[in-house]
Write a structure and sequence with these properties.
Elements: H1 2-25, H2 29-40, H3 59-62, H4 82-85, H5 105-116, H6 148-159, H7 170-182, H8 188-196, H9 202-212, H10 215-227, H11 245-256, H12 261-270, H13 279-284, H14 301-321, H15 340-350, E1 364-367, H16 370-386, H17 401-411, E2 415-418, E3 424-425, E4 430-431, E5 439-440, E6 446-454, E7 458-467, E8 471-477, E9 484-490, E10 506-511, E11 518-527, E12 536-545, H18 555-566, E13 570-573, E14 586-589, E15 597-601, H19 619-626, H20 634-647, H21 668-680, H22 686-695, H23 697-700, H24 707-712, E16 725-726, H25 729-740, E17 761-762, E18 765-766, H26 792-796, H27 815-823, H28 825-842, H29 846-858, H30 864-882, H31 892-904, H32 908-911, E19 912-913
Antiparallel strand pairs: 1-13, 2-12, 3-6, 4-5, 6-11, 7-10, 7-12, 8-9, 8-11, 14-15, 16-19, 17-18
Helix pairs in contact: 2-5, 7-9, 9-22, 10-11, 12-19, 14-15, 16-17, 16-18, 20-21, 20-22, 25-28, 27-28, 28-29, 28-31, 29-30, 30-31
The structure holds heme C (2 copies).
Length: about 900
């Protein structure tokens, strides 16, 4: 009997022991081996250096012959593997890691075991697609889970033996929601409404209402603007003005309309290549025209064009892949399996755009502000109706009004061109300072070029100019040394134009030889007799046709046409590819130096990330791949960014790097679950994703903590409590304006210049012209952004300079922040306006007024102790202004209350999201 059982059991036991042994001992490359290699070996055996011909970056390299002629890793045989011998070598010159402390016995044993088991290699998790069916863990927590997110969070808490917190008090929840969704605090009425709504749907209703607010886009555009390195100036030393605010408005609208993230991606990276791009698609591509541009005279345009293109590659990979591609510019990636050549394969997608560091930022899209748009459309339609059929436009449509206007004027032979719209230029051509609306500093033998000008009917060309010394002009065809078709002399118009702008513009009219067809026209400027630093300033060019049909129309129509030609469009730099015939070749740059070209490369993505189906992929194919199901990173990376916005830290804390040196995810399965759902279930809807997170119990927890939580989860990585963070710079400003009642709710439009210290000047003189009236109370997102002089109170609260893409702001707490809140005129004005309101509302009961208003900062009804202290501050200040300080301020009550409201804007509750 017994033996019979044994016979049956024997095979089972053997199988079981084997299974248990191999199951338990199976070494994970990613979890156990990679960290050792990354920390101890990769700097000498990776992408940059392959000492001894041995590299551990790619499996095939690790297992191939080294300089010694045989592989250092022999799978299955640790004893024979050089890699193991070197770890315990008696000669310190041979023992690895060279010149560093030896590995621990456990580490060496792990490596031995790993090789004995076959040296099994694994891809880094980020390059493996998340599983489609991720099981949501069961939890037995007595706190109810609201959705799947809580299951993942609570499971982890169970593991570390912590409990989530209770739900935060309603008032705090409302403030948290309001600040997170709209970037603005709730009003007193909103608190009342939320508290009195006791229905189970109250929370969700509020979330929906806030998500639908047009304020949502203004809040959420800001973090993307850090990634897009949005700025109203071009950067580098001169850091001149750049007109690109329409891109910011595009972003705000995209967030408000909940544009799906796949469309959002494609529009920004390749909107220009869509089959029929709209104005909006083109504006979106300004994303990559936020690169810096160098306006210094005499710099090499190609050098800075290339720098911008390389920057676009690095930024694209950082924003969508959290991959440090910029490290692959000069050598293969030191830690991640990306080869040097692969940087340039990616560069080929971006290397074919027309822009080339020209001052005028061509190519651009010309659009109108809402109010002008209507006017231009009416004028155009009015004129168009009166024209002969042969000169008419078939119909006037809303899109591309500027182009229609140009076409119409062209049909009529009214051909005025702004001088700064040239397509190419020589050195020493610059644009006049802040507005950059005319050309200056035209030194001897310099030129500008206009492409493809139709000269068929043209008999003369006029130029609007000003000059101190006089100069000569030659108009040439097709090249700078081409045939001269006209010559003229610029006279002296002004002896000393001060600063940058001449007083008067003169006209020089130059008759030209008859030329047929479309040609490139070069304007070649030469000095006159005297030596001249500064030849002329040029404002516009006009092509005179033999018999322009505009002359045949009555004066009334002609006047409208001139009005039309004067309507000023908004110019936005965009991406636009060169025609195929002119496309650029892309080469590897040896050691990243654009002057030493290596092999030519074709466009493609890094091998580790997959392959593209198209034979000759372009930028659009690349953008589509990013948001295709095949990409393993895009969705994870974006979900992580949203998570960070709502919890203060990403699931992967290193927002900018998901590579092998990244900080391990706190909840890897949750990250994958969210990523898969965002892509498949939510169809890339950003608002749906945000709502999902806001609805979770994990988000709703109170942010209080205790000793045990501080010990086991000091940074709240596991969300054992609600998140509590210092508010971002923009929200702090907006909150002060909102609470005080100063906030101007106007949306969109050119950037504004609120107060900042006077006499801030840059390399090019004064650039800050404080906005008048209500404009200075616009939301922070509209503040003019100058890279070399970022707005001081934002910098103090950790905003970046936006010279480069910034994935996360590192939060600091410094006394300077308090000084800003106490002294910056923006906060003083806010305090004053708020004080006035408190006095008006509660003149009879100051203490009650303080109590009521303090809730705007604290959310919860304030404790009486705090009110007591503030009231005392009021009384003491009042006594001071009525007595000793009588001569300082005309209104003692207001001055005293201002001190109180100023103090309230300085409370910890004010700067903290709790
Ligand atoms: C500071 C640089 C440095 C570090 C760190 C380093 N090595 Fe090396 N390693 C070298 C150099 C230089 C050589 C070539 C000279 C030689 O063979 O001793 C080499 C050679 C080797 C070889 C011999 C290759 C062959 O077959 O010829 C192996 C194997 C090796 N290293 C493994 C490792 C491992 C494993 C680590 C990490 C635990 C490591 N090294 C860390 C510098 C380094
Ligand atoms: C502008 C060019 C350039 C860029 C961009 C660049 N590197 Fe390097 N890096 C170099 C050069 C040059 C060396 C020296 C190579 C050599 O010794 O052969 C080097 C060496 C290294 C080394 C080896 C250091 C050693 O121990 O000798 C590491 C590691 C490294 N780089 C990491 C990085 C990382 C990470 C990034 C991205 C954040 C980066 N590099 C970006 C040019 C660059």
């Amino acid at each position: 009997m017994k033996s019979r059982y044994l016979i049956f059991l024997m095979p089972l036991i053997v199988v079981l022991t084997y299974w248990m042994w191999s199951g338990e001992e199976k070494i994970s490359y990613n979890r156990q081996i990679r960290p050792i290699i990354n920390n101890k070996c990769i700097s000498c055996h990776g992408g940059v250096k392959q000492s001894g011909g041995f590299s551990l970056l790619f499996e095939e390299e690790a297992k191939m012959n080294t300089e010694s002629g045989k592989p250092a890793i022999i799978p299955g045989d640790a004893g024979a593997s050089e890699m193991v011998k070197r770890l315990t070598h008696h000669d310190p010159e041979m023992r690895m890691p060279l010149g560093k402390a030896p590995l621990s016995t456990e580490e060496i044993d792990l490596i031995k075991e790993w090789i004995n088991q076959g040296a099994n290699w694994e891809k880094h998790w980020a390059y493996i697609a998340p599983k489609k069916e991720i099981e949501v863990p069961e939890v037995s927590m007595d706190v109810p889970a609201q959705n799947e997110i809580d299951h993942f969070i609570f499971k982890k808490l169970e593991e570390i033996e912590l409990r989530p917190n209770e739900e935060a008090p309603k008032e705090l929840l409302l403030r948290r929601l309001s600040l997170d969704i709209t970037g603005l605090p709730p009003t007193l009425e909103a608190y009342e409404e939320f508290i009195s709504d006791t229905s189970p749907m109250a929370y969700e209703k509020t979330v929906d209402k806030l998500l639908a607010s047009p304020r949502f886009g203004e809040k959420w555009a800001a973090f993307w603007m850090d990634l897009a390195r949005y700025s109203d100036s071009k950067g580098y030393e001169k850091d001149l003005h750049r007109e690109i605010w329409k891109y910011r408005d595009w972003l705000i609208n995209a967030f408000n309309q909940d544009m799906p993230f796949d469309q959002f991606t494609i529009a920004q990276l390749a909107g220009d290549l869509l089959p029929k791009p709209t104005e909006s698609d083109l504006l979106a591509t300004a994303f990559h025209r936020n690169t810096m541009a160098n306006d210094e005279g005499g710099t090499n345009d190609e050098e800075f064009r290339v720098a911008a293109v390389m920057e676009r590659v690095g930024t694209t990979y950082e924003v969508w892949q959290s991959t440090t591609m910029a490290c692959v510019q000069c050598h293969s990636h030191p830690y991640d399996p990306i080869r040097h050549v692969e940087f340039y394969q990616s560069q080929a997608f971006f290397n074919n755009t027309q822009d080339k560091d020209l001052y005028n930022e061509q190519p651009k899209v010309f659009t109108y502000q809402a109010e002008d748009k209507q006017k231009v459309k009416e004028l155009l339609s009015w004129v168009n109706d009166k024209l002969k059929p042969s000169e008419k436009l078939p119909k006037i449509s809303d899109e591309f009004l500027h182009q229609q206007k140009e076409d119409l004027l062209y049909n009529l032979g009214y051909r005025k061109v702004e001088a700064e719209e040239f397509q190419d230029k020589s050195r020493f051509i610059e644009l006049v300072a802040h507005d950059q609306e005319s050309i200056w500093q035209v030194q001897d033998s310099s030129w500008i070029m206009f492409e493809n000008v139709d000269l068929d009917q043209v008999t003369a060309i006029s130029l609007g100019y000003a000059s101190i010394y006089g100069a000569q002009l030659e108009i040439r065809l097709d090249s700078m040394l081409g045939e001269i078709i006209g010559k003229g002399n610029f006279g002296i118009t002004d002896k000393n134009f001060p600063g940058n702008k001449p007083k008067d513009w003169e006209t020089l009219k130059v008759p030209i030889k008859p030329v047929s067809g479309k040609r490139d026209v070069f304007y070649y400027f030469k000095k006159d007799k005297t030596f001249a630093q500064d030849l002329i300033r040029l404002d516009w060019v006009f092509y005179h046709e033999k018999s322009p049909s505009i002359d045949k129309y009555p004066q009334s129509i002609q006047a409208k046409l001139v009005e039309l030609s004067n309507a000023k469009p908004v110019q936005t730099p965009i991406l636009k590819d060169l025609p195929k015939s002119n496309s650029r070749k892309t080469y590897v740059f040896e050691r990243g130096d654009w002057r030493s070209k290596g092999e030519e490369v074709k466009a493609g993505i890094p091998e580790i990330m997959g392959t593209l189906s198209s034979q000759e992929p372009n930028r659009l194919d690349f953008a589509k791949w990013l948001v295709s199901g095949e990409n393993t990173l895009t969705s994870r990376v974006f979900v992580n960014r949203i998570w960070e916005q709502l919890f203060g830290y990403g699931i992967v804390e290193s927002m900018e790097d998901f590579g092998s040196q990244s900080i391990p995810a706190s909840h890897p399965e949750l990250l994958d679950w969210l990523a898969v759902n965002f892509q498949d279930e939510m169809k890339w809807s950003m608002k749906t994703l945000i709502k999902k997170i806001l609805m979770s119990q994990s988000y709703r927890q109170s942010s209080t903590t205790d000793e045990q939580k501080m010990k086991k989860d000091p940074y709240n990585k596991y969300l054992s409590r609600g998140s509590r963070t210092r508010l971002p710079a923009e929200t702090i400003r907006d909150q002060a304006l909102a609470i005080s009642g100063l906030l101007n709710e106007k949306q969109l439009g050119p950037s504004v210049m609120p107060y900042q210290p006077e006499n801030i000047i840059s390399f090019n003189g004064k650039f800050w012209f404080p906005s008048e009236g209500e404009e200075k109370y616009r939301r922070a997102v509209y503040t003019y952004w100058k890279r070399t002089h970022p707005y001081p109170s934002f910098v103090t609260f950790d905003s970046p300079s936006r010279e480069i893409c910034t994935s996360r702001r590192i939060r600091t707490n410094t006394p300077l922040q308090s000084l800003v809140l106490l002294n910056d005129p923006v906060y003083i004005e806010a305090a004053e306006a708020w004080a006035q309101r408190i006095l008006k509302e509660s003149a009879g009961d100051i203490k009650r007024g303080i109590e009521k208003n303090l809730q705007l900062v604290t959310a919860k009804k304030p404790e009486s102790e705090k009110v007591e202290v503030l009231h005392k501050l009021y009384l003491e200040s009042l006594a001071y202004y009525e007595g000793e300080g009588k001569d300082l301020d005309e209104n003692a009550q207001l001055a005293a209350m201002r001190i109180v409201s100023n103090a309230m804007l300085n409370l910890d509750e004010f700067v903290t999201r709790r």
